[in-house]
Structures are given as structure tokens and as C-alpha cells.
Amino acid sequence: MSQPNESSIPAAAKPASLSSSRPHKRNCSVAGCRNGVVQGGVCVSHGAKRRKCQEPGCDKNSKSGGKCSKHGPPRKKCDYEGCTNVAVRGGRCKSHGAASMRCSNEDCRKVAVINGMCRRHAQEEAQEHGALSHPRPQDPPFSPIVHNETLDHAHPAKAARYQDPEAQARYENSSVIAQNNYVVQNKLSQVIEAHNRLNAHQASYQQPHPEHHAGYGHYPGYPHPYPYHNPDHEREHQPRYYYG
Length: 244
Description:
Layout: H1 119-133, H2 151-154, H3 156-163, H4 165-206, H5 210-216, H6 231-236
Region (Disordered): 1-26, 47-75, 122-148, 204-244
């Protein structure tokens, strides 16, 4: 019985756990998830439980042989003479010939760190998958407000306003007008306060001292125009005339 050619197998029939960029590493069997398999064909995000270190009193995750990296067997060292670095690939460390896995994206020579890709391309792909799995409604081009799903149930009036471009425009215009009115009123109150202070300062500067008229007898026999007038003080400062 002849084996079917791999190219003849449809894409839907191929297992989702295989990765083209990292064939030695299985991915989560959940559609659209590129995390590594931890237990039962799924990742930790989709229900897998990490095994703990078998060393008594240790709560770290097991790495190899049921032990963590601290209590497990020592990692293989580089085969190069006198080198104590950990072997990465082919019995050698990166300093002595271990080839680093490159990003699976075309024309990218960066080292692969996440799912066979560099950090930038991994983040871009994660954003694309998130946008496809959770599409957002299109907001008006002039509206900077982010759509909130809980707003539809808590505040239906606000939700209707966000969905209607004309209602949103009217709301923004009224907000701008109210803000402008507040600024104008604040400036006007500042101008009035400054004007009152200036008038008070000019009145205190132009008002003559009470002793001026009393000393020179400008108001002889008449009540002094100031409320703190002292008649005894006025008699003492009355001018005296001598006839020779």
C-alpha cells in the first residue's frame, strides 16, 4: 500500500501542532495558538498544568527528569577545550560555532526568540491574530474614543451617541463651547478683579492725609470731612496771627 504524498494532503487535514518554522517543537493544538505544548497537546493558557520539581520543598517547574534546573542533572558544557559555557547546539556554545536560529520571516536576519521569529515580527503576528479573532467596530475618523463593550449595557444613551457620528459631533461641539465659555468667564473675572484693585490703589494714593487740611486751617469751624477727625488736634494746629 503506497503512502500518500505529503503535498496531496489538504492543509485542513494536517495537524495544527506542527510548526513550519520550528519542526522540532510542537505548538498548541488550539486553532490560532502558537504557544508550545506543555501537557496533553495544549499550552498553559489552554489548560495544561506544569509539573513541579520532585525535590522536597521545591516549588519550581520541572525542566528535565522531573527536576528543575537547580536540582536536575547538570547541563552539557561546550566541547571546546577550556570552555565552561553551556552547549546550545551541536555540542558547542554560541561563542564556538553554535548556529543561532534566525527569524523565519523573509529578509530578516535577527535571532529567533519567540515561536521561531524575532521579537518584532512575533509581536506583529500576535497583533494580527488578535485583530482577526476579536474584530473591533469601526469608529468615526474624528472620534478618539475607544469602543467599550460594557458601555452598551451600562449606559445605552452614551453607547448610541458613540455609534451615531452626528450625535458624537454635536456632543463634541457642545463640550468645546462649554469649555470656551468657562475660559471667557474666568478671564473676565480676572480682569474685573484687577480693575478693582487698580481703582482702590489709585483712591488710596490720591486721598490727602487728614492732618493736611487741619494743619493749614482750610476748614476752620466746619466739621472735618474724615470720620476720624479729632477736634482737639485741629485746635492745636490752628494758625496763629500776631499783630505788631
